[in-house]
Write a structure and sequence with these properties.
Length: 183
């Protein structure tokens, strides 16, 4: 999209010729013409490729995946296990493990055995949320090594942190540390 916008801008306000725009932006003249006719690039064509090595194994793999639909989640086949079973049951089929893995992943997505992972970025309002944790640390106090409990409070918005050491991780220390952190 940005490239098409740059092409259109350069053609209208810059060089002014298709050949000049193509040379300046390092694209083919055909792309310049396409950008001038429409502001949105055309969708790419996906080419369906034949799988001559994998095609004899597809019914075997599909049968395993269909049985996995009824199996508990922890008992389902992994792509590696399917590949090993394929090699044991049909040694005459010569197919790479990576090819089987790619097909199994594609098929599992299609039949619903796995879903695409979704990432939702988190945003926090300043001063509204924090994370609290305890951890232990050894400190040299008065020439003697002592185990101390560290209270750590981190603001989720700013990332600022507050730390305080206590001899024991008690409820009283926890509440006192909160008061000091908020001050």
């Amino acid at each position: 999209m940005e490239l098409f916008e740059a092409i259109r801008r350069e053609y209208e306000f810059g060089v002014g010729t298709i050949k000049g725009v193509a040379r300046k932006l390092g694209v083919h003249r055909r792309m310049v013409r396409e950008a001038l006719t429409d502001a949105v690039p055309k969708a790419r064509k996906s080419v369906g490729r034949a799988r001559p090595r994998l095609s004899p194994a597809i019914p075997f793999i599909d049968a395993i995946l269909e049985s996995d639909l009824r199996a508990p989640r922890k008992q389902r086949h992994t792509a590696r296990r399917i590949y090993n079973r394929l090699r044991a049951a049909n040694p005459e089929i010569k197919v790479a493990e990576g090819t089987v893995r790619a097909y199994v992943r594609e098929k599992k997505l299609k039949i619903g055995l796995i879903q695409r992972e979704t990432f939702v970025p988190q945003s926090y309002a300043w001063g509204h949320e924090a994370q609290v944790d305890w951890y232990e640390m050894y400190a040299d106090l008065g020439g003697e090594r002592q185990k101390t409990q560290i209270f750590c409070l981190r603001s989720m918005g700013s990332g600022g942190a507050f730390h305080r050491a206590y001899p024991h991780a008690s409820q009283q220390a926890f509440l006192e540390a909160h008061e000091l952190a908020f001050d």
